[in-house]
Amino acid sequence: MANSVWLFPKGFSLLSYIKVLGNNYFWRSFFNSVFYVVLITLLNNLNSVLAGYALARKGLVFRKIIIVYLLIPMFFSGGLIPTFILMINLRLYNTIWAIIIPATVSVWNIILVRTYINTLPQSLSESAIIDGASDFRILFSIILPLVKPIVAVISLYTAIGVWNNWFNAMIYLPRKPEWHPLQMFLTRVLIWGEMQSTATYSPTDGLDPELMKQSIINAAVGGQLKYTLIIVSSLPIILVYPFLQKYFIKGALLGSLKE
User: Fold this and answer.
1) Do the beta carbons of residue 131 and residue 142 sit within 8 Å?
2) Could you read off the pLDDT of 220-257 as tens digits, one per residue?
3) Is 201 within 8 Å of 211 (Cβ atoms)?
4) What is this structure's pTM?
């Protein structure tokens, strides 16, 4: 066995990928994650743009008070137990809305959109108001095309956060495995892999060679499935990121106008 493994892997096999891609629960959780990402990202972007535009208007009544009110939850969280009780009282427990509704609002994204809108020339909105345009017409016809870079940024932030989230599903959807996201499936596989590595052999069994060999095989299988799932679950974000990366670099140039 000495000096038998070098740069290239020995015994190359795609068996772990075949097992993962052939699992029905994997595909169900994968499409659940895609559903959560698309729906939450769209709703979060809509709320962020609407709230950011409203807070950027100088004539908004109690604007500073509203901003302070929104900033408080960023520093002081409501806590897990009160949030859990709230979900039960609202009858959202064990429903997908317990995952979707809280994620549709992000104060940080609202602040980013508001700050970006404040950098736009005020004369754009003022001239539209003189021409008789409503706030919604100004927002969707003038402001929204100019804030595409920041919308792309918050879309990427939101999508990555939703895609990697498994904790909320574990807390709020314990009896709805058919609605679990992909990361929850990955978490279960990781736990299964740890159990497989220790279930066959334990120190109380002595030094039985067969038990030790089977334990090593189980650990290897669990490790292969674990790393396969990590690669498969990371591919969608890796494939999407290059298309949005340009907004981080050219964000100051896209849609810019001079007075």
Assistant:
1) no
2) 555 677 777 788 888 888 887 777 777 655 444 444 44
3) yes
4) 0.79
- For residue 222, being part of any structural domain is answered with yes
C-alpha distance from residue 172 to each of 73, 106, 179, 193, 252 (Å): 21, 20, 11, 24, 40
Cα–Cα distance for residue pair 234/70, rounded to 1 Å: 33
Reported for 133-141, long-range contacts at CB under 8 A and 24+ positions apart, including other chains, are 135/53, 139/49, 139/50, 139/53
Tokens of 200: 């066959």
CB distance 73 to 79 below 8 Å: no
Residue at 255 is within a domain? no
Residue given tokens 């535009």 in the structure block: 53
Of 146, 112, 142, nearest to 128 (Cα)? 142
Q: Has residue 3 been placed in a domain?
A: no
Domain enclosing residue 193, as ranges? 15-250
- Give the CATH number for residue 96: 1.10.3720.10
Nearest to 57 by CA among 131, 146, 126: 126
Cα 76 to chain centroid, rounded: 22
Number of domains in the chain: 1
User: Could you report the per-residue pLDDT of 111-164, keeping only the tens digit for each?
Assistant: 889 988 888 888 888 888 888 888 888 888 888 888 888 898 888 889 989 998
Q: Assess if residue 257 is contained within a domain.
A: no
